[in-house]
Amino acid sequence: MGEDKVDTRPAATVSPAATVQPAAPAARPKSLSQQLLPAVHGLLARPLSSYYLLLASSGLLLLIGLTMVFSATSVKAYAEDGSAFSAIRNQLVFAVLGLVGFWVCQRLPASTLRFLGKYVLGTAIVLLAVLATLRAMRAVGLVHVTPGTESVSLGPLRADLLWLYLGPIGIQPSEIAKLGVVLWGADIIARKGAALGHWRELAMPLFPMVGLLFVLVGYNDLGTMLVLLSLVIGLLWAAGVRLRVFAALGVLGLSGIGLLIAAASRGAGSGEVGEANYRLARITVLFKPLEDCHSDFCYQMVQGRSAIYEGGWFGVGLGKGALKWNWLPAADNDFIYAVVAEELGVVGCAVILALFAVLAYTGFRIARRVDDPFRRLAATGITTWLVAQAVINIGGVVGLLPITGLPLPFISTGGSALVVTLAAIGILASFARAEPDAARALHARPPARWVRLLWAPLPPLPPPRRRGSSRPPTR
């Protein structure tokens, strides 16, 4: 019988620590923010994301504005005209005109915008000069004054506070001035380039023209002058001007504001000789306890805060606010944000703030991504203008800033303001389509010919990227 074979090979040495393998830790589930962020980054990385963000934010703001104007004016319009739709009908007409302006400006190339800048600014200065002249003639009794109003007439021309009428056609020259400063200022600064580091280049012709504009606008409307000042600062900041220039501008600006405030006691703007200085009262009212304040500006602030308090988190409901009918001054214009607070609550106010934040992000994103100096400066100027005006208006309503009488962009009533604002958004949309990546994507897969004819033509194709560069070359 065979013998059993015995395996004499040494057994493998096994470490005691290796005999027990610990279980792998379970993967932690991703939070909602971790799941959403990649999707958001993916959407923002698309070539035309700036364009669509701009259309979405401005379109929603316009829709909210039309809704709130109807809510704020329907009962008052019915009491005055017998129709609840008379005020919103006018606002819809201006919205349509503004959309036409958006369409036209979206189709214009940068070279045409640069060419038109000086004519837009020149038109605004002429209209402002006529408006200021009529009001100055009113002060010395040379023109007809409508009793009980601020209206001044000279033939077919009529001046009413910030409005200038030629027959039935009314316009706010200060709104045209904002667009003119953006286009003309961006063109001038882009042409000067690196020479802007010298005071002589800044002094001519930028500062004299802007100074004249500040006087003409500030004479009637200090709030709009502050928006123009913010706009000019945004243009110079985007151009890379030295900080010491801003310090000098700050001193000159504060001095000019002080002179305009003092001039209100001498009849400047809507002031009256010998009456209380309304511009100074707007500032000092912020530092007075409400129980010790008895001016009209205190009344506006109290009613605005009451509307915010009544609204709570979710509001009393659209159209159900009571303060706007008899107690809230300028409910459809300067204080329409208080109507939003009462009827839509904190949630509605937060939505509007979020949309303006998206608009600000998109505008500065466009300015950062375009490779043309003029487009970069104009995009910065338009964004600074709209955001600064929204901040000043909302700050005045909630009591953080003086009341200036500025409308809230897209939301308040006002024909010229809405038309010019939508035209400026059209310019931003044109710049968004001209971003290098967006232009390449549009040329790679161009829309149908009828879309290009009816909506917007193809933007110019940027130069090819250099090797080893992830961004297009700067011109």
Automatic annotation (TrEMBL):
Reactions performed catalytically: [GlcNAc-(1->4)-Mur2Ac(oyl-L-Ala-gamma-D-Glu-L-Lys-D-Ala-D-Ala)](n)-di-trans,octa-cis-undecaprenyl diphosphate + beta-D-GlcNAc-(1->4)-Mur2Ac(oyl-L-Ala-gamma-D-Glu-L-Lys-D-Ala-D-Ala)-di-trans,octa-cis-undecaprenyl diphosphate = [GlcNAc-(1->4)-Mur2Ac(oyl-L-Ala-gamma-D-Glu-L-Lys-D-Ala-D-Ala)](n+1)-di-trans,octa-cis-undecaprenyl diphosphate + di-trans,octa-cis-undecaprenyl diphosphate + H(+)
EC number: 2.4.99.28
Bilayer disposition of the protein: Multi-pass membrane protein
Positions of transmembrane segments: 51-72, 84-104, 116-137, 209-238, 245-264, 335-361, 382-404, 410-432
InterPro entries assigned to the protein according to its UniProt record, in alphabetical order: FtsW/RodA
Keywords: Cell shape, Glycosyltransferase, Membrane, Peptidoglycan synthesis, Transferase, Transmembrane, Transmembrane helix
Main location: membrane
Record's subcellular location: Membrane
Gene Ontology annotations of biological process type: cell division; peptidoglycan biosynthetic process; regulation of cell shape
Family: Belongs to the SEDS family. FtsW subfamily.
Function: Peptidoglycan polymerase that is essential for cell division.
Protein name per its UniProtKB record: Probable peptidoglycan glycosyltransferase FtsW
Naturally occurring in which organism (per UniProt): Actinoplanes nipponensis
